[in-house]
Design a protein that fits this description.
The complex is a heterodimer of chains A (about 450) and B (about 475).
Chain A lengths: L1 E5 L3 H11 L4 E6 L2 H10 L3 E4 L5 H6 L7 E4 L4 H15 L3 E5 L3 H4 L14 E3 L1 H14 L3 E7 L4 E7 L12 H6 L5 E8 L2 E3 L12 E7 L3 H8 L8 E5 L3 H10 L4 E6 L2 H10 L4 E4 L5 H6 L7 E4 L4 H14 L3 E5 L3 H7 L6 E3 L1 H13 L4 E7 L4 E7 L23 E8 L2 E4 L11 E6 L5 H8 L7
Parallel strand pairs in A: 1-2, 1-4, 2-3, 4-5, 5-6, 12-13, 12-15, 13-14, 15-16, 16-17
Antiparallel strand pairs in A: 7-8, 8-11, 9-10, 9-11, 18-19, 19-22, 20-21, 20-22
Chain B lengths: L1 H17 L4 H9 L3 H24 L9 H26 L5 H12 L15 H16 L1 H8 L6 H9 L13 H26 L3 H12 L17 H14 L3 H10 L3 H4 L2 H23 L6 H16 L15 H12 L12 H19 L7 E3 L2 E3 L1 H27 L4 H12 L20 H15 L3 H4 L4 H4 L2
The chains are: A alpha/beta (about 450), B mainly alpha (about 475).
Chain lengths: ~450, ~475
């Protein structure tokens, strides 16, 4: 597929990296030549320096025969204009824009064919915020990912002493809580994946991925580890795009304190947020943290745009007695370095948000993609179409589907119902099938499997 | 000197316009075929017109834009000159009425205070009663606002004048792009409501004269009545109820009324934090005071207690000043609480007096901010009212206003004490005057009036009314050395 990416920032370069690996022709446009040069040194793609909203730039970038336009520059307006131009001048089939301003997002007609012709809009900050909100809602989990509009969830949790399941085989789950349907999709032990079988024994320190109906998450978590009290007090460092959104999303259910370095931003934030306590100060100032009782804080989030500051303030908070600390880290080298250290959760914005973009790029009817374990594994939500003749999935039992090794069917969402993917479960047309892929190389094969053969159309 | 003459030029023109206000009592005199009255009012009209016209004519070389400082001079000039001219018919009609008392009466009308020095109201000619009540209607929303609405002459200075007269701490939000349009719309809403009020009062059992007069004084939150016994004369729960409704309407910002009318939605009232706070406080107090009176055995039945508590409390809290019973006889907590409400309950941009609910909210929130700042020294918490940030300079302006307001009360109370008044009378007379409420307690209570004051005391109360109506700064600024320094 020929893909044109506008903007070589965080989002643009991560998505480029991810798509290059999947054998696409990528062209990246940005006004900053240095960024492009760095990108080209690393990846096999074409770059072009210029204004992404100018027709001449788009033409040079080869928009005429592009299959998909990803407008992910810093500016909402440039993205909108680029999509409009692509639609009306060059008939580009798929146009995706990154839109951050709620002003636009609240009025979906802005994106319609009569206006800016945006097929899909994504807002990385919003995705990240929702992701963190889930983590605060379930403080025991490492990751909570939703499928099928929130009906089913994939949860990652580290097994700890105190959980009834620890030290026992997985089949124990069924006997211990027969009323709750859940399925363990994968276990990572010492960074290697284990394909879970009924007799696999869970050890302390295992990273377990399980799928359950969203309502049942808490009871399954209880099996894996000792539960903490639900979070009440949240402290956020950094009042940028993410910190602000997070405070807004949390302030009615939690006691939120937000520390921001810039006084002007503080005043703006305090005007905008209704119940959050906005504090002016440095997120790495341990005196300020003590004064604001960091030891009483249940969840601490370091969300500035400076990796080093986030690391330091998260470490200070942990030292000062904060319950769970989350740090936002952009550099992927840091992410692997810090995982499993003192900081409970290290978030890479690129990895959290890439999935929502990938869902549009993938072939077949992919409803959602979540990137797991820093991009090494992936969970996909695929829609099964066709019938027993035209599809290789529909009308077959889960055990019969010819999945590549390392991929498992976790659950099936049928209408409002969540069915666990047991060997004898029959897959019907229009089912949303959640597939867990431990190795990214398998993704292509899985997608092929769900494609309907030509005869269907 | 040239600028001062510009002020006189504008003042002259306004007096010419003001002379049109005599048309209403003239018409009344015609209807009642009272030709002596007719002559008096025509005379007053001609004099006002003639003096205004002369002032305008002689200074026409100085016609020009007003500066901010002369805007204040014009507003205060208007507010002192108009009551002075308005006394003419009173002086002509009522023998033995001193200018001091007549000026008190007209000032009380224009500032919508509603305190009176006249007795035998029931026997006054209808034209005089209409005139007294018309002054309350004109003064209610503001004569400058009216002048801006009908006279395009004020030009850019108009907005400045408008601000100097309209009560409340924040006057930046314009309803329409042009100030004259804003003024016209506000007056349209105000007069529309007054017409509805006249109809409702007629329906509730008043005759036309009473209905018109009481509608004027209710919408202006003035409190004049055509009867010595005030509303107690009618002894009708229905009339009391109608008046309560319209007083509560008039205590809300007329800009909110306008927005609600334009958008045809009651949601605008919910978006006005002042309206919610004012109405909540007043209605809550009604229930509380009713219970208090019933509990203390003032009224054996709760329903009676509720009726009298509601009417008198709403009347005093909204700064109208009607009375249906002698509430000064109630246990002292109740009337004092009512006097307290009158100081804070009215919304900015309404026709009520006092410091306005907006300033009360600012003060309460400022106190909360100080507490939070002590607990969290690093906190940044701008003041927010109704979800909007109130800039610090407005907070400071409010604090300054409150200081001046209290100092004025204290000073005037001392002055009255020096003149030989007892404390409760002196204190409540100043409160009732500066808050444009009307009756106080003691010898200026609801069962008596201000006739017993000597000339000096009457002047003190007159000045307090003017200071209260123009919200302290506008008047006192004329007495600062900076104002007169070039």
């Amino acid at each position: 597929m020929k893909i044109l990416i506008l903007g070589a920032g965080q989002v643009g370069s991560t998505v480029a990296e991810s798509l290059v690996g999947e054998a696409n022709d990528i062209t990246v446009v940005d006004s900053d030549g240095d960024k492009l040069r760095q990108l080209q040194d690393r990846l096999d793609l074409r770059t072009l320096t210029g204004n992404a909203a100018h027709p001449s730039t788009l033409e040079q970038a080869g928009i005429a025969d592009t299959d998909m336009l990803l407008a992910v520059t810093q500016s909402d307006e440039v993205n909108l204009v680029a999509c409009k131009l692509a639609a009306s001048l060059y008939n580009t089939p798929t146009r995706i824009a990154r839109i951050r301003a709620t002003e636009y997002l609240e009025r979906q007609e802005v994106f319609g064919t009569a206006n800016f012709c945006v097929d899909f809009s994504i807002c990385p900050e919003q995705i990240l915020t929702e992701y963190i909100v889930k983590l605060i809602e379930f403080p025991e989990a490492l990751q909570v990912l939703e499928f099928a509009g929130g009906k089913a969830s994939l949860v990652a949790v580290r097994a700890f002493g105190g959980g009834p399941l620890v030290g026992k085989p997985l089949s124990f789950l069924r006997t211990h809580m027969p009323q709750v349907e859940t399925r363990v999709a994968a276990i990572f032990r010492k960074d290697g994946p284990i394909i879970p079988e009924g007799n696999t024994v869970v050890e302390e320190g295992d990273e377990i991925f399980f799928i359950a109906a969203t309502d049942n998450i808490r009871s399954v978590l209880r099996e894996m580890r000792r539960m903490d009290k639900p979070a009440k007090r949240v402290m956020i460092v950094g009042g940028g795009n993410i910190g602000r959104r997070l405070a807004k999303a949390l302030e009615h259910d939690y006691q939120v304190k937000l520390i921001e370095y810039n006084k002007k931003s503080c005043e703006k934030l305090a005007g905008e947020l209704a119940r959050t306590l906005v504090l002016h100060g440095d997120g790495t100032d341990e005196k300020l943290m003590q004064q604001e009782h960091v030891d009483q804080v249940d969840v601490f989030c370091a969300l500035t745009n400076d990796d080093e500051n986030n690391i330091m303030s998260a470490l200070l908070a942990k030292q000062g007695g904060a319950g769970k600390v989350i740090a936002l880290i952009n550099r992927s080298a840091y992410v692997s370095l810090l995982q499993g250290g003192k900081i409970d959760i290290v978030l890479s914005p690129a990895h959290v948000t890439i999935g929502s973009l990938l869902a549009y790029v993938r072939q077949g009817d992919v409803a959602a993609v979540h990137s797991l374990r820093r991009g090494a594994a992936e969970a996909l939500e695929l829609v099964a179409h066709g019938d027993r003749q035209s599809s290789r999935v529909v009308g077959r039992r889960v055990g019969e589907v010819d999945l590549p090794k390392g991929a498992t069917i976790g659950a099936i969402v049928r209408g409002n119902q969540v069915v666990m993917g047991h060997h004898d479960t029959l897959i019907e047309a229009e089912d949303h099938v959640i597939v867990f892929v431990t190795n990214k190389q398998m993704v292509k094969k899985v997608e092929k499997l769900f494609q309907v053969s030509i005869g269907f159309f | 000197m040239g600028r001062t003459l510009t002020v006189i030029h504008a003042l002259g023109l306004m007096l010419v316009v003001f002379s049109a206000a005599y048309l209403m009592p003239v018409a009344t005199a015609l209807i009642y075929a009272d030709y002596a009255m007719l002559l008096d009012f025509l005379l007053a009209m001609v004099w006002t017109f003639f003096i205004g016209f002369t002032m305008w004519l002689l200074t026409r070389r100085y016609k020009g834009e007003l500066t901010i400082r002369h805007g204040y001079l014009l507003v205060v000039g208007m507010w002192t000159a108009m009551p002075a001219f308005a006394t003419i018919p009173l002086l002509l009609m009522i023998p033995n009425l001193s200018f001091t008392d007549a000026y008190f009466e007209t000032m009380s009308g224009m500032t919508t205070t509603g305190a009176t020095v006249l007795t035998g109201l029931d026997d006054l000619p209808p034209a005089i009663n209409v005139w007294r009540h018309e002054l309350e209607l004109l003064g209610g929303l503001g004569i400058i606002v009216l002048a801006v609405a009908v006279l395009p002459l004020l030009g850019i200075g108009g907005r400045q004048l408008f601000k100097a007269e309209t009560p409340g701490p924040m006057k930046e939000s314009a309803l329409t792009p042009r100030i004259a349009d804003t003024a016209r719309n506000l007056w349209a809403v105000y007069l529309g409501m007054t017409l509805v009020c006249i109809g409702a009062l007629k329906w509730a059992g008043m005759d036309w004269l009473d209905a018109v007069c009481h509608a004027f004084s209710a919408m202006g939150l003035g409190g004049f009545s055509t009867h010595d016994a005030s509303i107690g004369y009618f002894d009708s729960p229905l009339i009391e109820f109608v008046l309560i409704v319209f007083m509560l309407l008039a205590v809300v910002n007329f800009a909110t009324h306008f927005l609600a009318w334009r958008s045809k939605s009651l949601r605008m009232y919910l978006r006005d934090p002042e309206a919610i706070a004012s109405l909540g406080l007043i209605l809550g107090s009604c229930a509380g005071i009713a219970f208090f009176l019933w509990w203390n055995g003032v009224y054996p039945e709760f329903a009676t207690a509720l009726r009298h508590a509601s009417f008198n409390l709403v009347s005093i809290a909204t700064s109208s000043g009607y009375a249906s019973v002698d509430y000064a006889q109630w246990p002292i907590f109740a009337p004092l609480w009512m006097m307290f409400l009158t100081a804070i309950a009215a919304s900015s941009g309404s026709t009520g007096g006092g410091i306005k609910m907006m300033r009360t909210l600012v003060l309460v929130k400022q106190a909360g901010r100080e507490f939070l700042k002590l607990l969290h020294p690093a906190v940044i918490n701008p003041m927010k009212i109704g979800g909007h940030v109130v800039p610090n300079n407005i907070v400071f302006a409010v604090l300054g206003f409150i200081f001046l307001y209290f100092m004025t009360i204290v000073t005037f109370t001392f002055v009255l004490l020096i003149s030989g008044m007892d404390f409760i009378t002196a204190f409540t007379a100043v409160l009732a005057s500066i808050n444009n409420c009307g009756p106080g307690l003691g010898s200026v209570g609801p069962s008596s009036n201000y006739a017993g004051l000597n000339d000096f005391q009457t002047w003190v109360c007159t000045i307090a009314m003017l200071i209260g109506r123009l919200e302290v700064f506008t008047v006192l600024i004329l007495f600062t050395p900076h104002f007169w320094r070039r």
